[in-house]
Amino acid sequence: MSKSIVSIGKYEKPFESVKKVIELANGLENLPSKAKVFIKPNLVYWNRHCTIPKWGVLTTSRVMEDVVALLKEKGIEDIIIGEGIVKENPKDKETAADAWERLGYNKLIDKYGVKVYDLFDRPYEKIDLNTGFKTNFSSDALNADFLIDIPTLKTHAQAMVSLGLKNLKGLISVASRKKFHNADPVKNLHYNVAQLANKIPPSLTIIDGIYSLERGPAIDGKSHRKNILVASSDILSADMVGAKLLGIDPSTVPYIIQAAKDRNRPTDLSDVEVVGEKIENLASHHEWDFKYNDAGDLPLPFQRAGIEGIKYHKYDSTMCTYCSGVNGLILIAIKMAYRKSKPFDKVEVLSGKVMTPTPGNNKTILFGQCQYNLNKDHPEIKELISIPGCPPSKEDIQNALQKIGLRVPKSFWDNLDKAPGWLMQKFKGKPEFEEAFFQVK
Ligand code: SF4
């Protein structure tokens, strides 16, 4: 049986490094001449009100331009870059437009004639990915002749890693993304992610590891400069090698296990030929999980800060991306506003689609419409505080926190749009974190 080739290269200079790693993997050998090519970066989040840390979170514009330039060199004219950036309001057009401008994608349009699409403005096709429900999948991606998938080298708090397969989740509609985090114990997030490449055209996966990310996938993770590039025409092989580079055994990653099982393949890389740099010379340990206490009902930073009287259970894979962002907000608000002199009065917070109330609590917060629907009539609940909505609104969160006695300063809510910019502080005086990688000249 022939082995899948995965190439690993070092990022050393513009264009040449990306070209070399792709050629080492024979990554464009299945690219038809005059092909329509769809490129999927990872732009998981954007904020038009402030500058956010992008290192390891977003695909670099450097690699995007290098890939586009290589396609042009090969005579490819029809190039689409498409992404569905997670937004609070799906009708918001300004966030994607701002991302295209500030990440230099508008310059890629001018320089190379590419098309850049906010996938939420584009058609989806209902397809069967073998998930048990129909998925709305980007029509532009499905109908391309060739797909280039460019995730970053990052971990993921629910999926363990977010590489080639996981990056394809940005090609599906908001409703389908929510369904992917379903409560089915078998056809769960991991199973569903493993199905994402089932209907795509021939593809090339390029893992952009100029920066990597611990405790991803978002801007509160820990970034590292790594200068690693990975390429393969086989998406699963690329992901297995990517996991190894993150210091994570692919045979422990549920979506990789499922994807390998579906393809009747091993997860030990025995059917993969790695060319170029060696994994062992570049791999390094990356934490993927946010730490909780032993009972799993309090984030470790809460325990260390002496926060008492609240059970805030660890998120599970059924909490979708849209609640995850808001969940982070609640945690920050509690950490910031909690006073040791006023411990909470036996509060329990439940999220996602499967958690159920435990006995002995005085107040139960049901966070998100899924939770409300599941537990609103649960007999263990003494006082119900609901944060409905899908995802919940900031106003409802404010009200709920007031009901558990937390006084969050008004300035916190007034400045939320710009709050992610505070995270830039940790990168001050660290020249290896270069904004220039996210610009196009
Ligand atoms: S309530 Fe939250 S977890 Fe449930 S589908 Fe809506 S956003 Fe996702």
Could you write a compact summary of the structure shown?
The protein is an alpha/beta fold and 441 residues long. The protein contains 16 helices and 16 strands. It folds into two domains: 4-288, Rossmann fold (3-Layer(aba) Sandwich); 300-422, no CATH class.
Structure commentary:
With about 450 residues, this protein is α/β, with parallel strands linked by helices. It folds into 2 domains: about 5-290, Rossmann fold; about 300-420, no CATH class. It is about 30% helix and about 20% strand. It has helices at about 15-25, 60-75, 95-100, 105-110, 140, 165, 175-180, 190-195, 235-245, 255-260, 280, 300-305, 320-335, 370-375, 395-405, 410-415, and strands at about 5-10, 35-40, 80-85, 115-120, 125-130, 135-140, 145-150, 150-155, 160, 205-215, 220-230, 270-275, 310, 345-350, 365, 385. The strands form 3 sheets. Strands 1, 2, 3, 4, 7, 8, 9, 10, 11 and 12 form a 10-stranded mixed sheet that branches. The mean pLDDT is about 95. It binds iron/sulfur cluster. Iron/sulfur cluster binds next to α13 and α14.
Question: What is this structure's SSE topology?
Answer:
Elements: E1 4-10, H1 16-24, E2 36-41, H2 61-73, E3 78-83, H3 94-102, H4 105-112, E4 115-118, E5 124-128, E6 134-138, H5 139-142, E7 146-150, E8 152-156, E9 160-162, H6 164-167, H7 174-180, H8 189-194, E10 203-214, E11 222-232, H9 235-245, H10 254-262, E12 272-276, H11 279-282, H12 300-304, E13 310-312, H13 321-337, E14 347-350, E15 363-367, H14 369-375, E16 383-387, H15 394-403, H16 410-414
Parallel strand pairs: 1-12, 2-3, 2-7, 3-4, 7-10, 8-10, 13-14, 14-15, 15-16
Antiparallel strand pairs: 1-11, 5-6, 8-9, 10-11
The protein binds iron/sulfur cluster (SF4).
Iron/sulfur cluster binds next to α13 and α14.
